[in-house]
């Protein structure tokens, strides 16, 4: 699996997951329960992972929706 997105915005992971699900791209959110450790401050980034073969098209979907990601 490859990292598609890393963000501290708690709304971004569900939004991008829904976009990917609409295109039948499986994804896995990591670090979503870290807020319990950080005290719900939102300082630890959450990550969204996709399969290696889906990374190119997933990045294209993010670009189409003007969502910034690290390449």
TrEMBL record:
InterPro entries tied to this protein: DUF2007, N-reg_PII-like_a/b
> In this protein, which residues make up the domain named DUF2007?
1-64
Protein source organism: Aliiroseovarius halocynthiae
Task: Tell me the SUPFAM superfamilies matching this sequence.
Answer: GlnB-like (SSF54913)
Name of a matching Pfam family: DUF2007
Q: How is this protein named in the record?
A: DUF2007 domain-containing protein
């Amino acid at each position: 699996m490859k990292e598609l997105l890393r963000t501290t915005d708690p709304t971004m992971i569900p939004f991008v997951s829904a976009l990917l699900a609409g295109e039948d791209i499986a994804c896995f959110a990591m670090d979503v329960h870290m807020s319990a450790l950080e005290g719900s401050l939102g300082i630890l980034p959450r990550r969204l992972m996709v399969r290696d073969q889906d990374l190119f098209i997933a990045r294209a979907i993010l670009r189409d929706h003007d969502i910034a990601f690290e390449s």
